[in-house]
Amino acid sequence: MERSFIGNTLAVVMAASMFPFASNAAIYSTLLDFQADDQSMWQAGDAWQLNWRQDIPLYDWDYSFESPRSVGLPQLIPFAPPLPQFSVFGHTDGNIGLSPYLNIDSGSVDASYNLNVTIETPDDFTVSPGEIFTISTGYASQGTGSFTTNFPEIQAGVDILFGTHASAGVNIFDGYRCGFANAGSCWDATPSQTWEFVGLTVDPDEGIAANALGIPIGPFDAGLIYDDEGRIPGLQFHNDTISILGLAEVDLLEEWSLGGYADISLNVPDINTTGSEATGFTAEGEDDLFRFSVDADKIALDIVDKVVQAAIAAGTAGAGSGALAIDFPDLEGSSNLEPIIGETLASLIPIELSYNILDIEPFLDIDVRQEFLFTPNDLMVSFDLGNGTITDPISVGEEISLIMPDGGFEMTPIYSLPDTLFSNLTELMIDLGIDVTMLDFCLDFTGILGLIPSIDPDPLFHEDLTLNEILTVMNIPTGWMNPDIFNQQFAFNFDPITQAAIDIAPYTGSGGGNGNGNGNGNGNGNGGVSVPEPSTTLLLSTGLLTMLVVGSRRKKRGLFH
Asked: How many CB atoms lie within 10 A of CB 419?
């Protein structure tokens, strides 16, 4: 037991003498927020954008009027104090103008990537000048990164500039009590009372308010009619849609009918997507481009009808006006049930029946699909040492070794994401198919029975058969039906982020800190950490070991005697 105690003590003392400079490291933590706005979705660099607007004032006005004063009531008593007089007033001011604009975006990406970085340096006054010391780095993602894409678009229109204030009322003037002699000639210069009968305010800053006979109406928020910039939306065009006053929207390219036998739909795609770090920084979207469909059953029925009518006409030639005629019913349409329930009953109980006995529509459908992948690669850091030297970048997570200079210095970390990549796959989705519907109807209660919900059950049979599905079932590749319009990976640019400078101070003697050492470690430090010299530590360790050995011998001697 005694030998074990002495051995352990000796090991501790020897370890203490071997590592006299053991100390804690300084750790600095910083949150980096990399942001990029309006990057191009087609190539490295900024998106091409045109944003133009011009406010054009057309007319400003500021009008006021006041009628001459008149006595409100007749002067019944001669030489009595004058009765109040009144005048009618009105005021209006405001402005009106137009604000044409044009915005074009070639397709852009906004991204956000948040990281928490740590830098570990030796404590101040623990590394002597000329010695090599190590800086450790590390980082972890906050998990909140995201990106959004905005498809190419065109916006144009003319908004309205407008604001007005208006009021109308009565001013009341009292006569001075000048005595009977001056009655009727002494009057107040300013009205003693003002009654505003009606008022109106329409202003992007003040909102919308009115009053009538002293009863206020409002105020209402200006956002009811104004946009965020204080303008009233006028005639606006966005891709292929027109809106008026921000209310009605009309799709200019929605659908064209070719004689009822075919329909063509054309659409300007508007694909906006969002990808998050939680889902792997991927996003995809799809929108219609073109569709062409043919009403095959209507064409077939009309052909059959014409053939039958021609045959009947040929077979009954010369038979006179009593020739046989066949009228084929339409396979789809609508009716107010008048032929069934009669005109009188149909007018009292308006019911509309829409039906589709058989509908066969071959179609060609073309969509645009986009798939995006955002890949933020290694975070890099370089260090500005403050003397015109900037170290080569290293990956955050690695270490860098530096030589301690004679005096303290500031080290500024500079972070970058130079190898971040963005990929864009834009392709057409082409499909041929046939849409078959049988026995579909809808019963709509209109007019006085409008509160009764429509009866619209699913059709007895409905199926979309597409070439893509058929080829997939047959294990035949369909890649040729999805040709690429664009497929490229390119660099995504984040601006570098500079962290606050880190102060590093070298060991300057036993006084440490800012001591004025004399070469023997006898400096007068003012806040540094005092670190013993190796010879002093060795001497202290030897003395401690001697004391322990002597004490142990004395203990043994006591045990034997």
From this structure: 14
pLDDT digits (tens, 9 = 90+) for 149-189: 999 999 999 999 999 999 999 988 776 544 444 444 555 66
pLDDT in tens, 433-460: 998 888 877 777 765 555 677 777 777 7
Query: In angstroms, rounded to a whole number, what is the distance separating the alpha carbons of residues 158 and 99?
Result: 5
Chain-centre distance of CA 395, in angstroms? Answer: 32
CA-wise closest residue to 511 among 533, 493, 541, 494? 533
Give 487's Cβ-side CA count (13 Å radius).
Answer: 7
How far apart CA 493 and CA 213 sit, in angstroms, is: 63
100 falls in which pLDDT band (50, 70, 90)?
Answer: very high
CA distance 547 to 380: 54
Say how far apart CA 333 and CA 354 lie, in whole Å.
6
Burial class, 537, CB count within 10 angstroms (exposed 0-12 / middle 13-18 / buried 19+): middle
* H/E stretch holding 50: strand 49-53
- For tokens 């190590």, what's the residue? 134
pTM for this one?
0.65
Residues 279-307 have a mean pLDDT of 88
For 556, the token pair is 């043994």
Q: What's the CA gap between 207 and 216, in Å, rounded?
A: 14
Per-residue pLDDT band for 300 (boundaries 50, 70, 90) equals: confident
CB–CB of 412/384 below 8 Å?
A: yes
Residue from 56, 57, 82 nearest 70 by CA: 82
Q: How far apart are CA 16 and CA 22, in angstroms?
A: 9
Contact of 13 with 544, CB cutoff 8 Å: yes
Mention every residue, 6+ apart, whose C-beta is less than 8 A from residue 3: none
Rounded to the nearest 5°, which phi and psi values hold at 378? -50, 135
Q: CA 415 to CA 394: how far, in whole Å?
A: 10
Which helix (H) or strand (E) segment holds residue 556: the answer is helix 534-560
Strands 248-251 and 256-258 turn out to be unpaired
Cβ–Cβ under 8 Å, residues 225 and 161: no
Alpha-helical runs (H) found in 403-508: 467-473
Distance (Å, whole) CA 357 – CA 359? 7
Find tokens 């300013």 and name the residue.
190
Per residue, the 3-state secondary structure of 152-200, as one string, reads: CEEEEEEEEEEEEEEEEEEEEECECCCCCCCCCCCECCCCCEEEEEEEE
At residue 97, the 3 state secondary structure works out as: strand
Which long-range contacts link 242-251 to residues 24+ away (Cβ below 8 Å)?
none
| Most confident region among 423-427, 473-477, 497-501 by mean pLDDT | 423-427
What's the rounded mean pLDDT across residues 50-75? 84
